[in-house]
Specification:
The protein is mainly α. The chain contains three helices and no strands.
């Protein structure tokens, strides 16, 4: 026979109730006998649990009372020992570690390249350039003073017939009474 034919078909709620009733009938005789025994054991266990709890509490209190002075004594001994160790480390061991780290840093550090006076050369070049510029300016002033020009813009004169006037046109003697204007390329001298 197959497994499927052994099972009874459960149809609706009546089938489930039938199974439940069958299970109750099977368990009831056993439960009826064991229930009073379980109740009696529970009633006996309650006072035992209460006495066990109080005895554990008393044992814990006595352990705390016994251990507290021992723990305090150990703490009072350990505190100065730890402080002495800290001082010894900071006074002897820490400087040795620090110097070892510093020497290691110096050993692995890349040596800086030597500078070959580029700053000095640059400063010297700049000073020579400034001195040459000042010398050129002084020479131009002396040349202008030697030529008789006291100001950078010469006054108009009638001898500047071919020069350019302020409007940018070729000047003549009769136009607006102006002569030539100085030319930028001629160092302030009018064109001739």
């Amino acid at each position: 026979m197959s497994v499927l034919t052994r099972k009874q078909a459960v149809s609706g709620t009546g089938g489930l109730r039938g199974h439940a009733a069958y299970a109750v009938r099977q368990v009831a005789p056993v439960a009826g006998k064991t229930l009073p025994m379980a109740q009696q054991a529970a009633q006996q266990a309650v006072p035992l649990a209460k006495s066990a709890g109080s005895s554990v509490r008393q044992g814990a209190d006595s352990a705390v009372a016994w251990a507290t002075p021992l723990v305090d004594a150990a703490r009072s001994w350990a505190a100065p020992q730890i402080e002495q160790s800290a001082r010894a480390i900071s006074e002897s061991l820490a400087p040795m570690i620090s110097s070892a780290l510093i020497s290691a840093a110096h050993k692995i550090d890349v040596e800086p390249k030597k500078r070959r006076g580029h700053r000095g050369m640059l400063l010297g070049t700049m000073l020579l350039t400034v001195a040459a510029g000042m010398a050129a300016m002084l020479m131009l002033r002396r040349r202008n003073d030697a030529a008789g020009f006291s100001s950078p813009v010469p006054s108009p004169s009638s001898s500047d017939l071919g020069s350019v006037n302020a409007t940018g046109q070729a000047g003549t003697e009769g136009q607006d009474g102006e002569g030539g204007t100085p030319d930028a390329d001629a160092d302030g001298h009018p064109r001739i």
